[in-house]
Amino acid sequence: MPQRKASRGPDMFDQAAEERLQREAPLAARMRPRTLDDFVGQEHLVGEGHILRRLMEADSLPSSIFWGPPGTGKTTLARIIAQMTQAQFAPVSAVSAGVADLRRIIAEAKERRALQSGPPDGGAAAERTILFIDEIHRFNKAQQDAVLPYVEDGTVTLIGATTENPSFEVIGPLLSRSRVFTLHALEPEQVALILRRALTDDERGLGPERPAVDDEAIEALSNAVGGDARIALNALEMAAAGAQPDEGGERRVTRALIEEALQHRTHLYDKKGDAHYDTVSAFIKSMRGSDADATLYWLARMIESGEDPLFIVRRMVILAAEDVGLADPQALVVAIACQQAVHFIGLPEGFLPMAECAIYLATAPKSNSVLLAYERALKDVRETQGDPVPLHLRNAVTGLMRSLGYGKGYQYAHDHDEHYVEQQHLPDRLAGRRYYEPGELGFEAKIKEWYEKLGKAVRE
């Protein structure tokens, strides 16, 4: 039987250092929940009777990926799981760790499994190891591959935390062996609850300092952090530290102090991540849905978060042609003028032409007839053999061409009433095809009326 290594008791100096680090840690780190009862939010996962809580209580959690915004409890949940299941918690950060760190943890996990907690005939289970990889999306394919065999054979139970869509950032084999749990940004009321706990906690929070915090300040802070409890707690700590005692010795934290500590409202936005694509999708769909107010909100979100203004304008140019189209041909003109204006003046003033263009596009009549017409024509182009141009539409620039019938029978539209004449312009096999169907709104109503007038003239 392998001999258990003698473990060294906690050194008094190590313990003192640990206690000092705990005291000096930021408020968000000190207030990290230790049990599920203290945990706030994610009721859809850890509420009574819900899936993650049931797995934790049954000690049967599989390797998992926690996907959600920052400050929503991914690391905290992993630590609580390790505590509830009495597993060894081995955390690494993908920002600083490499394959060597993973191999060391795996080697220790193998050794830990081999050491039974009792005699060989006692049937005791091997101690489990939870390998927690924070920001797992930052690991490349080779680093994720290094973990895969040991997740598969149960050497470690993986919990990966990511703010990015694991479908794109975690390799398929590892994803298929893991359960993905989606965490949501905290509601302002939940952030406010966490802040109030920190203000009254005498052991880890600001209780001993007894700062007086206005309800207005807590509400403003809770609404300003985008559901990120970590930012909220650290901003509260900074504001409390900066509050000056009044004549009675009370340190009052006001909304002004909170705003000063926060400096700038935070927005979850990554120019290459999900937030980027989700936000621009909301912007486009709000314009398409003729909702000018939502359009302006998402536009402001993107500008405030540092999005490239020319990226935003390119999307508006596309929408002008795709979704407004010929219902208002001026839309494309306005969008191109916006592009030129933003390119010319840049930000911050560039928000003005962008907002004007966005409102114009949102309130313009809509038609996707151009897109549909092109798709119908493209379908015939791809599914037919590329029939020759009819002879009467070809230019006869030489005598040989004229002798072959080039241009013969062509009718010049301007020689006829209404500058229109009925003749075939498509190849023979596609004659009579209709690709463009005018809509009923805006300028297209006039196009439809004109088309109907021409058709009536031809029938007569």
Number of E-state strands: 7
Tally of contiguous helical segments:
21
CATH superfamily of the largest domain: P-loop containing nucleotide triphosphate hydrolases
Please give the largest β-sheet: 5 strands, parallel
Q: What is the gyration radius calculated from CA atoms? A: 33 Å
Number of domains: 4
> What's the pLDDT, averaged over the residues?
84
The CATH architecture of the largest domain? 3-Layer(aba) Sandwich
* Poorly predicted segments: 1-10
For the biggest β-sheet, the strand order reads 2-3-4-1-5
Strand content: 5-15%
Q: Which term fits the overall shape?
A: elongated
Q: Can you give the helix content as a percent range?
A: 40-55%
| Ends distance | 103 Å
- In CATH, the topology of the largest domain is named Rossmann fold
- Helix- and strand-based class? alpha/beta
Q: What's the CATH C level of the largest domain?
A: Alpha Beta
Description:
There is one protein chain. The protein has 21 helices and seven strands. With 460 residues, it is an alpha/beta fold. It folds into four domains: 41-182, P-loop containing nucleotide triphosphate hydrolases (Rossmann fold); 188-262, Helicase, Ruva Protein, domain 3, CATH 1.10.8.60; 274-363, Zinc Finger, Delta Prime, domain 3; 389-459, DNA polymerase III clamp loader subunits, C-terminal domain (post-AAA+ oligomerization domain-like), CATH 1.10.3710. α14 runs parallel beside α16, α15 (292-304) packs antiparallel against α18 and α17 (330-345) packs antiparallel against α18 (351-363). The chain is elongated and about 100 Å long.
